[in-house]
Each structure stands twice: as structure tokens, then as C-alpha cells.
Amino acid sequence: xxxxxxxxxxxxxxxxxxxxxxxxxxxxxxxxxxxxxxxxxxxxxxxxxxxxxxxxxxxxxxxxxxxxxxxxxxxxxxxxxxxxxxxxxxxxxxxxxxxxxxxxxxxxxxxxxxxxxxxxxxxxxxxxxxxxxxxxxxxxxxxxxxxxxxxxxxxxxxxxxxxxxxxxxxxxxxxxxxxxxxxxxxxxxxxxxxxxxxxxxxxxxxxxxxxxxxxxxxxxxxxxxxxxxxxxxxxxxxxxxxxxxxxxxxxxxx
Length: 254
What we know:
Blueprint: E1 5-14, E2 17-27, E3 32-36, H1 43-50, E4 58-63, E5 66-67, E6 81-83, H2 96-102, H3 112-116, H4 120-139, H5 155-167, E7 173-177, H6 185-201, E8 205-209, H7 213-219, E9 222-227, E10 230-235, H8 237-242, H9 244-251
Helix pairs in contact: 2-4, 2-5, 4-5
């Protein structure tokens, strides 16, 4: 069987800068895989290639054995991929509910014409979409705040809203860019528990970028390590922690 996600010999260049250099790894269905490395290692660049923001100089990205590089960026979510961002990307003047509803557009079957007229089919589709959105808002622990504007909410809550927006599309693979970034130690523990629920209760495979090592080692099945665009290690959390190349990448050679 092919992996759910397979990255093969992926290379990205920005002018003379090599951001990714023939990187390869796979994510099997049901796994939680962490992508780690120092700042500038190429982690977010890799996410941007997978989701078709960037075009690679070489290599390919496969989902269920089929290349996603041949499809348009807006079609990626229809392959069962959703993501969050390192810098929270929400519509700040809109409510929590309206932000999460944006993520449900791929599940809505009525077109713009049907949606503009209060026909029974469009009304039913809108009701179903609203129900899914409210369920995901409740799942991430923000049910009582569904009607509040996003701009009025703490940063940690905004990250949960972004997670709910990704989950409402019913992804098979969720790409999480620094889910523990910029939040307190107590919130990191809460996010770890929440993502474990996402994995176990919703059955979502996850690929995450994160700098918080205790978080990574506590949640991941496998860890892939990048440094200056190259993959320098891959294995279980325990194997990676003992890897000399990884220690040198983070701490410098002794």
C-alpha cells in the first residue's frame, strides 16, 4: 500500500538559495509525524509546497499515490488535506462561527445561485454546514463563544478557531504549523490533549511543524528532522533525541 502522503526528492530554490534539497519522507494513515529543525530549515516551505503555495524545482508530492502538483491550490482540500498557519490567518472582524464556516465550503453542495435564493435545498445545506461548524467549535472548547468576533479573543483561542476551521472540512491529513507556538506552558498542555483527541476521536492523520520539543516528543509517532533544507534524521522520538546530527544541528558541534 502507498502512504497517505509521500514526499519524494523535493527541492525548492529561491534564486540562489536552496530551501529544500531532495527531501523525502512518508506519512502513513493514522500516524502523527513531526517535522522539526532549526529556524530556516525549510519546514514551512515544505508545507507550502504540499498545499501548492510554492512550486518545487524538483521532486513530487503524492497523496494516496497521486501527485498533488498537477492540481490547483484550491483543489488540495478536496484531496483531504487541511492546514493551519504559523501566523494565525483568520478574518478578525468576523465571528468565530463565520470563520469556521469558511472552512466548510468544500462540503457545501449548492452553488452560488442556489445559495442566493432561499430554496429548500440551499436552506438545508446551510443548516447542515452551520451544524458541523458549531460541532467543531464545541470540540475545540469554544462553544459559548461562537458568536463573538475573533479580534476580541485571546491568541490561544484564535489558534483553536483555526484548528476548528481546518477540521470542519473533514480532512484525512491535517498539516499543523507550530500549533504550540506563542502560547503559555499551560496552553501547550491543553493543545497537546486536544490534538490527541483529534487523532483518536476524529481519526485524523497529522503532520506538524513545531519547535516545542517536549510537545513534539510527547505526541509524535515519528519525527523527521531538517537542517538547511536537508533531511538529516528520521525515526521515533527516542531515536531522534539520541541522533548526533540532530544534537549538533540544535546545539552546535562540541
